[in-house]
Amino acid sequence: MREVAEAAGVSVATVSLVVNNKPDARIGADARQRVHDAIRALGYRPNALAKNLVSGGSRFIGLVTDAIATTPFAGQIIHGAQDEAWKHGYILLIANIEGNEEAEREAISMMLEHQVRGVLYSTWYHRAAAVPAPLRETDVVLVNCYSPAGDVRAVVPAEVQGGRTATELLLREGHRRIAIINTTTPSPAHDGRLRGYREALEAAGVAYDPALVFNAQPDQSGGYDVVEHLLAQGPTGVFCHNDRVAMGLYDGLRERGLSIPEDLAVVGFDNQEVIAAHLRPPLTTVALPHYELGAAGVRVLLGVEDAPGDGRVEVACPAVVRSSVGPAQGKGAVPRAVGLRRS
User: Fold this and answer.
1) Taking the complete model, does pTM exceed 0.90, yes or no?
2) Signal peptide location in the record (predicted)?
3) CATH no. of 55-152+291-315
């Protein structure tokens, strides 16, 4: 600032008034122009940290994540948060800690030193999370996770609604004998999607049949391994816990000479584009709204969007319709080619 003052032939106080755009400053147009010219010539930028110390705040928002920066589809949380922060004149400070507790402590400490407006604390899959103690020193919003005590605002996917939507995609095509391949892992996704499945069946007047509920590892092998038991129950449609499970189901059906959706309609969950859009036929699924989770987290942090009484904002999981769901064949009958295998 002293260098700018010398170049412009004014005092340091005058430079400060111009830089901070004080409306009541009595500075002539010529002096103001000389200051702006010197700033451009010297490449001067105000010391943001010093300004933060004076104002007691900053235009930074912290984002601490466990692994979402290295998880392609969940990285949309960062994208959504970044776009929303820009809209309101803020910049994200991002720390991807990969489970390193020391890195987490140092990242949070750095963010607090920079007097961030607040911190988003996010996980790559929806789960309960322990809030690091230092975050209690600032505003914090959990994204894609929640505190079991319910004492911190959280933005999470609407798992129940998502399960209901997935099941309704099949019900609308006349399917009545609908199976669900759920995960073996206790989680909000396991419980919420199953509850949504049951609610959709009940609303459609279809009796819940426990024999149509299968638990499998939440990956391609899990979907493949359950095929024989699934087909024995004679469903016409199936809702898979995620797109990787659906991919394994596709493999098992193909080996048995069965067609999708003619023999079995399939709905996934997550909308992992690299999987869902490139299966044959492309997979109808329900999207996890990662981009909107990040954006909503910023809105809640800034007070642009209010959290309800329980402090939990649920973001809808939208349907993504492709080609793996067709009309039911018969009234919930066993698919016409069940049991056939390629020779």
Assistant:
1) no
2) none
3) 3.40.50.2300
